[in-house]
Amino acid sequence: MDRTAIGFGEGHTPGAEWFDELRRRRIKGPISTQNRSLSRSLAPETLAVHAGTYEDPITGAVGTPIFQTSTFLLDQASYDAFADGALRDVPIYSRYGNPSQWSVQEKIAALEGAESAVATSSGMAAIAATVYALTNCGSHIVSAYDVYGGTYNLLREDMPSAGRDVTFVDPLDLDAIRAAVRPETQLLLFESLTNPMLKAPDIRGLARIAEEAGALLVIDNTFLTPINVRPLDLGADIVVHSATKYLGGHSDLTAGVATGRRKFVDRIWAQVLRFGGTLDPLVCFLLERGIKTLALRIRVQNENAVALAGYLASSPYVEAVHHPALGGKGHEALRPEDYRGFGGMVGFEVAGGDERALRFMSHLTLPYVATSLGGVESLVSMPANTSHSSLTRRQMSTIGINPGLIRFSVGIENVGDLVEDVQTALKTACEVEDR
Predict the structure, then answer these.
(1) Does 305 share its domain with 263?
(2) Does the keyword Repeat apply (predicted)?
(3) Which residues, including other chains, have CB under 8 Å from residue 82's CB and lie 6 or more apart?
(4) Any idea what DSSP says for residue 18?
């Protein structure tokens, strides 16, 4: 079978330059001629539906097929790929790449405005591969002290033994970040919104610091998605996601992605190969299907979160509410022109502390009491007894986790129903049970 006739190997061009002792493409992709390639000037709603779709030339299927195979027939294109270091660009073995992966990677790259993307088996697989690929032994990394717990543990526990030193700083303090940079600093790693306090760092300012230092800026855009902000447009070099969350959107898969310029993504892809964190073809299919409705879901979740935050801010049973739309501390660096919205996460502190917060959650009838976020269903949890339970009370207080803090991932339910449910649960927890 001549696979070049149906577009495989399209990205494999002769004369690739050598880079880090491996031949690397300096093009977008990997992609075949059967992957739908659209103008990046199209609206994100359109790109989410159409970008990257594999238009099968045999069956005419309008949806990307599931290429559920571990290996592919070898032919001359395969041998050329081995010889020229182009294993990303020709289907040979699914750990190297699979057309199901190519489709979802192209869709995400289009949404983020990137040249290339690599899909991984989880968000942490994407983050770990990115950190290892873009730093060397003896290098230095700067990150936030309140970065996601999995990322924090990777940086704090694993990096020292791997010969990387890490400095943790306040993500809002550009002066402290600049002061933390050293001659050997290779990477700045921050989030577009922090978890769970929803602080919004100045991405443009971070990009300037990274450029001045000759370092790379990685932004975890899980909480906002490219529908709300595109960090690459603001100067970031690489964007990572836990695609388990908003990108997948249905709480039914585990995946991650790293996206940016191809020369960086190639290095991350090579690290993924060594770690073995390749994304399964079936999950690629589920993720691509989920992303098709991303813009619609995010629009509703943006609106629902703002409405819920507004109600909570007026509730006598709530001591504090954390959401970018309300402004205040942690959101001074926000430039409205850079954002289309702020996602579906709301943080708030139930008056009376952890005991009342637990009571409140037990009286909710619509949201699920569960970890994770970004699904169509609302999820609610307490960071103090889940994601940040390993911290002392003093450590929690340092990063803003006060007694009674609730993390509410708002879904796409009717917002009136959600507000009514929250209102009833708060009143029951704070009034009725105190009698």
Answers:
(1) no
(2) no
(3) 92
(4) E
